[in-house]
């Protein structure tokens, strides 16, 4: 199996990533909704203020007016707005980063999972217990995420760029340009910004996605619900995608915001870390903010997982003699 597992997983992941990229972009835009609506305490003046001059006088009472919170819109509205304001090609912003990310991250995690599956399966019965499946997914996902984090940061920034005012956009030309400029302007360490979140999310996604797919597929076949074919693969993969989406969405929201934050030299960054981002998000937008973008997440995770495993099964058939 060895190298072949990496090749099969890589091909399936790239096909799935590219085909569902617009849904992933919409998810990122939705997760960033409301982020800039956190009032700055320094801009809120009390009813009475003192103005220094040669003579100290007291200002008249003034009421504080806060701008209304931005209207939350759904995935269809977000997609239509992107299409109308940025053009159809904007739906594929950052696709080069997606290809690199899938090549690094998913190829590694899928390949390692198969290695662990081969090593940890019972030599007599060939069974691979659920606990070992989850452990294999956690380890494989964590290693894959550490390898692919630079491409992940670049992808998030390229997908989010269109929502910024024209004067603030980074306008990366490609994933190579993004990584090069980030290294030069913000330091090499910026390529691993949010890496703890990426690793945690990847561990959860891989464990829930790959383990649940294998477990559900085995259950379907063992109980004779369906035969080993397209129907079984689609059913098991969609269920696995739902499990992964529910488990990973809160970490994904925080990861997106930390990776997308703009750090200017000499200024305090919006978030000091993942925990700070989570606390600020919950305080200013409520706990449900951690499930922002859940509809596009499941809308993307479902098709992505289906395409991933259906393609994987077909690639395995094609490469079974190699």
UniProtKB/TrEMBL annotation:
InterPro entries: MCP (IPR002067), MCP_dom_sf (IPR023395), MCP_transmembrane (IPR018108), Mito_Metabolite_Transporter (IPR050391). GO terms for biological process: mitochondrial transport. It is a multi-pass membrane protein. Keywords: Membrane, Mitochondrion, Repeat, Stress response, Transmembrane, Transmembrane helix, Transport. Belongs to the mitochondrial carrier (TC 2.A.29) family. PANTHER family: MITOCHONDRIAL DICARBOXYLATE CARRIER-RELATED (PTHR45618). Its main location: mitochondrion. Solcar repeats lie at residues 4-119, 128-219, 228-318. GO terms for molecular function: dicarboxylic acid transmembrane transporter activity. This is Mitochondrial uncoupling protein 5-like. SUPFAM superfamilies: Mitochondrial carrier (SSF103506). It is found in: Mitochondrion inner membrane. The keyword Isomerase does not apply. Pfam families: Mito_carr. It comes from the Eukaryota. One of its GO terms (cellular component) is mitochondrial inner membrane. It comes from Escallonia herrerae.
């Amino acid at each position: 199996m060895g190298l072949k597992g990496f090749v099969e997983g890589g091909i399936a992941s790239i096909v799935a990533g590219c085909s569902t990229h617009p849904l992933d972009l919409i998810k990122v835009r939705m997760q960033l909704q409301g982020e800039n609506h956190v009032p700055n305490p320094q801009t809120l003046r009390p009813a009475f203020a003192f103005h220094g001059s040669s003579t100290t006088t007291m200002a008249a009472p003034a009421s504080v007016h806060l701008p209304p919170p931005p209207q939350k819109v759904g995935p269809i509205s977000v997609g239509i707005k992107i299409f109308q304001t940025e053009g159809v090609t904007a739906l594929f912003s950052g696709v080069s980063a997606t290809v690199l990310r899938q090549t690094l991250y998913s190829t590694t995690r899928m390949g390692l999972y198969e290695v662990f599956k081969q090593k940890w399966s019972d030599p007599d019965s060939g069974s691979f217990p659920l606990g070992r499946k989850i452990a294999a997914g956690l380890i494989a996902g964590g290693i894959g995420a550490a390898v692919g984090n630079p491409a992940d940061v670049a992808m998030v920034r390229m997908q989010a760029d269109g929502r910024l005012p024209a004067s603030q956009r980074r306008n990366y030309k490609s994933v190579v340009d993004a990584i090069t400029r980030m290294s030069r302007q913000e330091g090499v360490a910026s390529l691993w910004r949010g890496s703890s979140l990426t690793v945690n999310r990847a561990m959860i996604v891989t464990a829930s996605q790959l383990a649940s797919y294998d477990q559900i597929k085995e259950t379907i076949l063992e109980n004779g619900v369906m035969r080993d074919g397209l129907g079984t693969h689609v059913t098991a993969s969609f269920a696995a995608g739902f499990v992964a989406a529910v488990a990973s969405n809160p970490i994904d929201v925080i990861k997106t915001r930390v990776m997308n934050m703009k750090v200017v030299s000499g200024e305090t960054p919006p978030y000091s870390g993942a925990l700070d981002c989570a606390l600020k998000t919950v305080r200013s937008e409520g706990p449900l903010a951690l499930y922002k973008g859940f509809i596009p997440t499941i809308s993307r995770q479902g098709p992505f997982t289906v395409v991933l495993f259906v393609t994987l099964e077909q690639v395995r058939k094609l490469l079974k003699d190699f």
